[in-house]
């Protein structure tokens, strides 16, 4: 497997970045102790938002996840009479096995913008054949040849986020895409206990004799040094992008930057825990992926003479070296790290800034994919 791994240590101030259904910050048991946790889904969402907002990828290089496929396709058919366009769109989606109810698809679809453009064009060119009565996905009356033509446009559309995170279609598994990237749930390197912030709000218009609060409540939070890990299967990424090596390189670098610099944004208006990573390491080459969370199976314990981030970085590098001794490094292998923790440890070249890290990763990906 030709891979690119990212290992990050990030200390976040008191915060509640990723909540469960009760509003509490997510956590997990690991090594027998309660740890702070941020789900992989939340981290991937933050990466996709960065792809769009920074922007790291153009619109045609991205996908959208939505139940509003009908609206998206109608937007591309604005010059067609609306009633005709709507029937054609719903019949086309039904023919593909995608049920539509009250203008929305039954579940979220992840489609590349190029796929949406091509699907709209296919509908435009076959308006007459798709203009019949809408009868639902099980009774859609669409010629087989047209149905196959519509299916052929669902090829991933060379959308980088779709290529990285994959697509699952329960009703049409053959149109799915296996993900090229795997993202671990972020875990604290140490044990945590949740804390509570009791707050009150004052009614500005209260008369002087009324001194009570207008409202009150509490919010849970914790602070943590998190270990974050992700791995990209570079060959799968290239395959999902239909062999476009330059786009695979661009996608790998965009993922590296977005994954390193983003976190979910839960409760940030209350906590503003905008803390960039203190340690970002990469490992690229050919071999087996290696999550280093076991470095923290025994929780890191605070010491007065060293911060948790530095102790965590030293434990991570020790685990890295231990696995290398037992199982061997990647072959060939490229590696390096940004290190703001001043951790002691040999064998991992230090790089000066994010630009240098990206250049080193680009060198590795170019060599591995023969760009």
Task: Describe the protein in words.
The protein has 371 residues and is an alpha+beta fold. It has 2 domains: 243 residues, no CATH class; 95 residues, no CATH class. Helices cover 34% and strands 22% of the residues. The chain is built from 11 helices and 13 strands. The strands form 3 sheets. Strands 1, 2, 3, 8, 9, 10, 11, 12 and 13 form a 9-stranded antiparallel β-sheet that branches. The chain has a two-stranded antiparallel sheet with strand order 4-7. The radius of gyration is 25 Å and the shape is flat. The two termini are 17 Å apart.
Proportion of residues in extended strands: 15-25%
Low-pLDDT runs: none
Largest sheet: 9 strands, antiparallel
Helical stretch tally = 11
Tell the overall outline: flat
Average pLDDT confidence is 95
- Give, in order, the helices and strands: EEEHEHHEEEHHHEEEEHHHEHEH
Helix content: 25-40%
Query: Can you count the beta strands?
Result: 13
Determine the N-to-C terminus distance: 17 Å
Any idea how many domains? 2
Class based on secondary structure composition and strand pairing = alpha+beta
Give the C-alpha Rg.
Answer: 25 Å
List keywords for this structure.
single chain, 371 residues, alpha+beta, 2 domains, nine-stranded antiparallel β-sheet, two-stranded antiparallel sheet, 11 helices, 13 strands, 22% strand, CRISPR system Cascade subunit CasC, CRISPR-assoc_prot_CT1975
